[in-house]
Amino acid sequence: TLRYVRIAEGGKVAGPNNEINGLTLQGVGHGTTLEYIQVPGNLDDGIEWFGGTVNLRYAVLTNNDDDDVDFDEGYQGNIQHVIIRKNPNKASPTGSNDPRGIEANSSDDEYVPETNAVLANILVLGSAVNNAEASDAGQQPGMRLRGALTTAIYNTAVRDFDTGCIRIDDADINGDDSVIVSSDVTLVNVLGDCEDGYYDK
User: Fold this and answer.
1) Strand, helix or coil at 8?
2) Cα gap 53→196, rounded to integer Å
3) Does the pTM exceed 0.90?
4) Would you say 114 and 151 are in contact if contact means Cβ atoms under 8 Å apart?
5) Nearest-angstrom CA–CA distance, 61 and 193
6) Measured on CA atoms in the order 151, 53, 87, 66, is the torsion positive or negative?
7) Partners of 61 in the beta sheet?
8) Three-state secondary-structure class, residue 155
């Protein structure tokens, strides 16, 4: 059980596209309890799930330099009651980071169609750090949901991501556009206020 835990100002750039998350969950099962978790000021993702079924309730993720909630590789679980705030005092991300509030990735060379998560009651607030056109990754949406995943998002609000609130991508599973597998995304009562509109793609 991790309850009332604060993981602050961690992370390290180990190499290009290789940084350390605040909390990394590698195949963790639903017998583990994660509640009341705070991850502020991490150099990479706030919390990342690599597969597994562990649920999360009540989290505050602030000033993290990459994604705040990131799940992939067949993760199947529930994430709810989360506040995400991108760093309002940083003009652009460090290195190759592409800061989004939520990233779900099972696409292309990481194709894992079993990824299936339910998210509810989440507030995602952007800032200049995700709107920096000159950064390595350019402007980022509030959520990027990609790669033949299945996800449902309920009672959530996203704002202040200039390029769009939500981007949804299918999976190009062999890399040459000859086999495309669709993502299955359900949005219920998801509010968006982003300069270029609700959908980035």
Assistant:
1) coil
2) 35
3) yes
4) no
5) 20
6) negative
7) 39, 84
8) strand
Supply 30's token pair: 């639903």
Q: Do the beta carbons of residue 101 and residue 145 sit within 8 Å?
A: no
- Rg over alpha carbons for the chain, rounded to the nearest Å, is 15
pLDDT for residue 95 is more than 80 = no
d(CA 47, CA 24): 6
Q: Residue 188: count other Cβ atoms within 10 Å of its Cβ.
A: 10
Non-local CB neighbours of 107 within 8 Å, separated by 6+ positions: 146, 147, 148, 169, 170, 171, 172
**Residue 33 carries which side chain, given as an amino acid letter?**
T
Task: At 17, list the tokens.
Answer: 């596209």
Q: Report pLDDT digits (tens) over 143-177.
A: 999 988 999 999 999 999 999 999 999 988 887 88
